[in-house]
């Protein structure tokens, strides 16, 4: 069983060589690890490697293929690359340029929408205001743009990274 | 005597107040908005009343609803916590009219201290040192230029109704005066509906040092020493400690006396805080009074050994202060770290969401005041404070090391938090040396924002853990896959029937 | 200087030791048995070494394995915690031979204090009051009768190698002497492989009061005041507090001096405890010395403000004591409750199992030392101690009320615990008054065992919650049921095929 | 939807009359309750009834029909009685008298078995010794008995309430 895993712009090839309960032998880019790994709590792993004790906490996104990984001092964004992910990635590139949508990195609420479909806006214009936790953030366009589609309305609760407005 | 208290707040402070109520046999009443049905303060309270939809101006900020819940529950008193209505003179007044005890000062004390110009005048009258500047509002632009020249540059132009850094402008050069004045006035008008501004001397490398005070209804007023609150990000306190690393016992005694005088000047009742601005030479000036419990009150509780909420309730009950000034002393050192649901790597954007997993630090010298639990969703409507770690040590050095130990063991997944940022502060040489002022975070920004380098095999360990977790999940969902296969089989059921044991 | 410490223990004490190590920059090494792979001390440590199968005599009690792990990890020192090998002279000795620092006293101090008769002799020589009784072993039955008559009834016959109540017999009447003597000897032989017994005067309503001491390698010895440990069930401490409610400052000073003298008499090094038996008139007698850290050491840490583990490590490093006797004082009051995985309703049978859900008490004055987490399975092989709640208050009264508040908020499901039993103790009038001795639990047994009557609608609420949970679960598993139906459908697939949309 | 529920020797008839998200109307033995009930953590419910705040924690046994319920000060054993339970109960009575088995209330380890199948033992004889957490417990027969079947062997790990020995 082998997989490709993305971490910090590195693409690592991981292969499970052997598994005996919590004792596993894994190869990461050819380097062999003998590891004692056990899930102790929901999403929390205790790992012993060369008698060092590591605690690794995972938060998985909905698709199950992206993880936020917390180790002792570092936090990593890690992604599993399988056939499906590769296909989706290539498809995504074709259809949606990230620059063609406006989204908020955090969940919140739509306070005000300053444009309507069909509007032509100028670079730096604010198009939407989002509030989250006592703080309002204005989202502006970087270039002159056309508002193609508005997917939310004022007062809507929104998720982090949800597409709010499609621009062209 | 008060038997039932309504806590007009949420989050950690509501629970903190209820804990002391429970210890002295007082029934606690929670109020909650739509977003807070599952919030811990509702679960912890003896009773709970729904007061409206999620935005705070439709629930926690509506005096009518708070008073109504108090009446329905039969609570004799209201504790406002901090934030929300805690410094609202109208609530204090309304309580009085309704015959409900407001656990806090009179409307008059709140208003006097709430208006900066009035507060300045009152302090000058009481002999408390204030920052050189005007005691009257700036009436004309001409007068403004004159006044600034009189005080000497640099100066701050400040909104009288101000707070939170709004309606404030720093003026360094003479030709900036008019622009700054106009900007401050217009911002003050739109933020507070009042464009009154005044001018103060700007203190170059200021420390924020505040004194906790307690005052009963009989004019007895004591102070519980200082808290150093100079570690701030955008005028928001991040870390507080007591004693202040720059304080001397002589200055402490002087400032304490002024703090008591400041409280007495407004016939203060209850717990309050006198904030001073202090320069590197330990010159100190009255800045403002917070007429409520502070977020950072626990460090004082730890070092002085007094439960401030119990004292507030005692005072509200019309009892005399339990302590005299000379019975109080500072014992050891305490530091508070505020843990926020914010993403330090993304400009401290709030990071609400569902707490997936939490491990709380325990053990010697650790006090933890929080309110979240596993599975709880931090709502988007309120302050992103998750909890406060209050660490005590015999010495400042021990306290810092213990704080590091506690932060190390404090794990929250599912949301972004400021834990690692706080760890960085504990490792910053200026902080360790106790040599810092309110510019600490900007001065050390690069150090604070440098990501810890991956140590040893950490990256590979992360990869392996994700790999194994993903594999395990695949195994778990395998039955599903096989049932999908069954569906396919079913389709060809007619064909294969003869081969299967039905 | 010690840079790496192996902690030869598990559970809360292993973590407690590691916490202090972390604060002073020492790397901690855990050892673990088969049952403990997922135990928190393995997760908390920097390193972990497997030392054998689950029974403690195949892992935690095997000196060879501990030494081997220390060598492999390069640990310069071993901290034994309490229990297991903590009072094993052989380990202390072996460490010395291997050039490993044993964080504890010399083999000689352990042996001298471990043998009760030798300890008695040593104390008498040092002028420390001991319970009237023999200083020699009982050689013949005739001699036994003579001795008992000399001391005067009632007496206790005790095994010299004894501990934990084994090999101990109370004699109230003359005709019981021989039977008790024979029973004690036979029990001592089978429990300790040594039938040496001696006789002591029996103290009628005894208090167990112990003094914490610290001693460095240079003969400096201090005491950190007393702990009252009279709330016991079958000779096991349940609750401890400091100061003792029966103590006077005069007696405290006297006993403290004797405690220091007792430690000096065996050239003690490190942290240790002198246990006294005290009668209602405050007559006190040396009972035994515990040559290790005690379970209840945190109440002393809280009231005196000293980290005892750090002091142990300092001493082991050859440093002088950080404190002088006259620098120490007791500040406020502290009580410790031990929370066990035991079923109070079923004769305190141990209740191992999986922790389903846990809510830890937080806030002002609460210290919590534990090791379990959600999903953790408490193993059947070791002591059922889950955690210790250490509560501080300005006064004893405040401390009791705060303990009640903390116990109220402390929730563990999945296993039975003693939390409710401890709450009952906090509500027992004798405890509240501070008037209790070691007979407290038997004297108040009926009160302690009376189940709280159902309050108000609690029973119906319980019914409704179960009802709704059951209903919700039914809904959740409905898809499964429908898939079972599919199987049935499948069986008749041929028949129904024409009716179905495939 | 109605069920019979056993608690403290009381048999209660419970019926759900209405449900609107977390607001429910339930009848317990004819008494009507309007309750706001929500599961806040795994097995932990927050309940508001007449503005009183209750926290109720449930631990469910494997069959899913027996619960241990912790409320503020009380702990209850609660059992759901449905058709299946009734059938099992009646069946159990026919076949296994509780007096005919020896079991330990707690999980542990079999230290020693002092009898073998076919042995006749006298009232008060110890038949098996179980250890759990530093403590050994001896299990004795109350009457003269015949050892019919021994289901465990020395050294076995056992669950709480697992049948260890069948007697007659």
Give the tags.
heterotetramer; A: 168 residues; mainly beta; Glycoprotein, Type 4 Pilin; OB fold (Dihydrolipoamide Acetyltransferase, E2P); 2 domains; eight-stranded antiparallel beta barrel; four-stranded antiparallel sheet; 1 helix; 16 strands; 58% strand; elongated; B: 502 residues; alpha+beta; Rossmann fold; Dna Ligase, domain 1; D-amino Acid Aminotransferase, Chain A, domain 1; 5 domains; eight-stranded antiparallel sheet; five-stranded parallel sheet; 18 helices; 24% strand; disordered C terminus
Structure explained in plain terms:
The complex is a heterotetramer, with two copies of chain A (168 residues) and two copies of chain B (502 residues). With 168 residues, chain A is mostly beta strands. Chain A folds into two domains: 2-81, Glycoprotein, Type 4 Pilin (2-Layer Sandwich); 94-167, RNA polymerase II/Efflux pump adaptor protein, barrel-sandwich hybrid domain (OB fold (Dihydrolipoamide Acetyltransferase, E2P), Beta Barrel), CATH 2.40.50. Chain A has one helix at 83-95; strands at residues 2-7, 10-20, 23-28, 31-41, 44-49, 52-60, 66-70, 75-81, 101-103, 108-113, 120-121, 126-132, 135-140, 145-150, 157-158, 163-167. In chain A, the strands form three sheets. Chain A has an eight-stranded antiparallel barrel. A four-stranded antiparallel sheet of chain A has the order 9-16-14-11, with no helix packed on it. In chain A, strand 6 and strand 7 form a beta hairpin. The termini of chain A are far apart. In chain A, 27% of the residues are buried. Mean pLDDT of chain A is 85; it is low at 93-98. Chain B has helices at residues 11-23, 40-44, 63-73, 89-98, 107-114, 116-125, 141-151, 177-192, 249-265, 297-304, 308-316, 396-409, 419-426, 429-433, 440-443, 445-449, 458-491, 493-496, and strands spanning 4-7, 27-32, 47-50, 77-79, 101-102, 155-163, 166-171, 197-201, 207-215, 221-233, 236-242, 270-278, 284-290, 333-340, 342-343, 349-350, 353-354, 357-359, 366-370, 377-378, 385-393, 411-413. In chain B, helix 4 packs antiparallel against helix 5 and helix 12 packs antiparallel against helix 13. Chain B has 18 helices and 22 strands. Chain B folds into five domains: 4-103, Rossmann fold, CATH 3.40.50; 132-201, ATP-grasp fold, A domain (Dna Ligase, domain 1, 2-Layer Sandwich); 204-331, ATP-grasp fold, B domain (D-amino Acid Aminotransferase, Chain A, domain 1); 341-452, 2-Layer Sandwich (D-amino Acid Aminotransferase, Chain A, domain 1); 456-492. Helices cover 38% and strands 24% of the residues of chain B. With 502 residues, chain B is an alpha+beta fold. In chain B, the strands form six sheets. Chain B has an eight-stranded antiparallel sheet, with helices on both faces. Chains A and B meet through strand 1, strand 2, strand 3, strand 4 and strand 5 of A and strand 16 and helix 17 of B.
